[in-house]
Design brief:
There is one protein chain. This protein starts with 6 loop residues before the first helix and ends with a strand. It is an alpha/beta fold and about 500 residues long. It has 3 domains: about 100 residues, no CATH class; about 240 residues, 3-Layer(aba) Sandwich (Rossmann fold); about 110 residues, Outer Surface Protein A, domain 3 (Alpha-Beta Complex), CATH 3.90.930.60. Helices cover about 40% and strands about 25% of the residues. Helix 9 links the parallel strand 6 and strand 7.
């Protein structure tokens, strides 16, 4: 069990890990470190070889990232006795004779450190209540999340508290909830370790701990796996198929303030006789929320079962589990399982829904683009007429790039097509004609669409009315596809 840290002890630990270069920047630079062992023994020998030099950084990586026991005498010259005393007292490490045994996994994240269970626990008899370390899904939700000022933020299914602690940077108050009773000690410890004092922790199922409360921002990385089992709290739930995700979506809408955002990573199914898009439309019906959904991947039932079982079960369990899972899917008519990102905003009035198919990136934050999309979609929804749109100012996204494709003909490169692309968080691409590309180059947010249409009208053989209509059509289409932002 982790014990509370005093302010002084937490500061000493932060200073020690920073000076030892056990940092996010170091982990990003070292290609070996992201290859942590997903199960005991996985890549371990190669990682031990790469961390064999007797340095403080390697000592910490071996303990708190690889989970390797080390002899006290062999590291005494690298670890000050007062620092070791803090680690032992806090429960980060246990001592058995001369052996120092790590009790937590530590992951650097930006300027912070997060403690969670060791990887080995997931594949042990104690896996049911494992508190997961920051992982690719955590990173995706963090990059997806909107970091605008918030009075009250909720981290639903907080785990070790990553989103709650990071949200404290832009929130007046943060509440973290989880159904796993072991999560509380990790959230409290990580808040103290990172000098964050505004995170409230509540234990309970989904929104029950915050009944009657509303929030400006809700972040959720819920246990969304579509499985016939519910033994692993961090990824499985007791409800049929994707009903838990549906529950989270519909209850989240009830706990949002007007203008508040809900953002989550989720999975859903396509069953025989129903399109997956129709399923999501039903989830959102009557929620009084606008929504943008990005489907990032899909798997057939067999492929999904194989993937998820491999992630959470030992090879010995996998064979028997696969047949159990497939029988579950067949009985319920599951054809595919899809996954992606949800963004919802509570808003009075007629609501809109956007569904896209794209693979969101995890290299850099893209929360600002979510706000831009919602603002542009609002303008398109509330100003349907051309005369209204002509008074707006279109602006090409700063992430837009134009690619020219050519072929060789007669010994020369002949341009064949132009492709407009969006780089960054949620990529997109669209073939465009040269005239459209040149028009988009003029869309810098300084001129109204009417002014741009007038300028274009002097260069083409068409009536002013035809030019305005074509400009409006182009702007609407490319704004829908996120290539253009629209300002009043």
């Amino acid at each position: 069990m982790l014990a509370p840290l005093s302010c002084d002890d937490a500061q000493r630990l932060r200073d020690f890990f920073r000076e030892a270069n056990f940092t996010y920047e170091h982990f990003k630079r070292d290609p070996a470190l992201p290859e942590y062992p997903r199960r005991p023994g996985y890549h371990l020998q190669a990682l031990l070889e790469r961390t064999s030099d007797s340095t403080t950084t390697n000592m910490l990586v071996r303990w708190f990232y690889l989970g390797v026991t080390q002899e006290r005498d062999s590291v005494a010259h690298l670890l000050p006795e007062p620092t070791l005393s803090i680690m032992l007292k806090a429960g980060m490490m246990n001592q058995d004779g001369s052996r120092l045994i790590p009790a937590v996994m530590l992951t650097p994240w930006r300027d912070k450190l997060f403690a969670a269970d060791m990887v080995a626990r997931m594949h042990s008899e104690h896996s049911a209540d494992v508190v997961l370390w920051p992982n690719p899904t955590t990173l995706l939700l963090q990059h997806f999340s909107i970091h605008k000022p918030s009075r009250d933020t909720l981290d639903l299914g907080t785990g070790c508290g990553v989103h709650a602690i990071l949200a404290a940077e832009y929130s007046e108050r943060v509440c973290a909830t989880d159904l796993n009773p072991r999560a509380e000690q990790f959230v409290a410890f990580n808040a103290q370790l990172n000098n964050v004092n505004k995170v409230e922790y509540l234990f309970g199922d989904t929104f029950e701990p915050v009944k009657g409360r509303t929030f400006d921002s809700i972040l959720a990385n819920p246990p969304f796996f579509v499985t016939p089992t519910s033994t692993k709290l961090f990824c499985e739930n007791e409800m049929e198929l994707d009903e838990y995700c549906r529950r989270v979506v519909r209850e989240a809408a009830e706990h949002l303030n007007e203008g508040g955002y809900f953002q989550a990573v989720m999975e859903w199914v396509q069953v025989r006789g129903q399109k997956w898009q129709e399923r999501l439309e039903e989830w959102l019906d009557g929620t009084h929320c606008d929504a943008w959904i990005v489907r990032g991947y899909d798997r057939d039932a067999a492929g999904y079962a194989q993937m998820r079982i491999g992630e959470t079960r030992s090879p010995e369990e996998a064979a028997c589990k696969f047949q159990q899972w497939m029988a579950y899917y067949r009985e319920r008519g599951v054809e595919e399982i899809h996954g992606g990102l949800f963004a919802m905003r509570r808003r009075s009035g007629r609501n809109w829904l956007r569904i896209e198919e794209a693979t969101a990136g995890d290299k850099e934050p893209f929360g600002d683009s979510i706000l831009e999309l919602f603002a542009t979609q609002d303008i398109l929804a509330t100003h349907p007429r051309d005369d209204e749109l002509l008074s707006m100012k279109p602006c090409l996204s700063p992430q837009a790039r134009l690619e020219q494709r050519s072929r060789v003909e007669g010994g020369k490169w002949i341009p064949t097509s132009l492709v407009l692309q969006l780089t960054g968080g949620v990529p997109a691409k669209q073939a465009v004609e040269r005239g459209v590309a040149e028009f988009l180059g003029q869309c810098d947010g300084s001129k109204t669409l009417e002014e741009l249409a007038q300028g274009l009208g002097t260069q083409v053989n068409a009536s002013p009315e035809e030019v305005r209509q074509q400009c409006c059509a182009v702007v609407r289409r490319l704004a829908q596809q996120r290539f253009l932002q629209i300002f009043r």
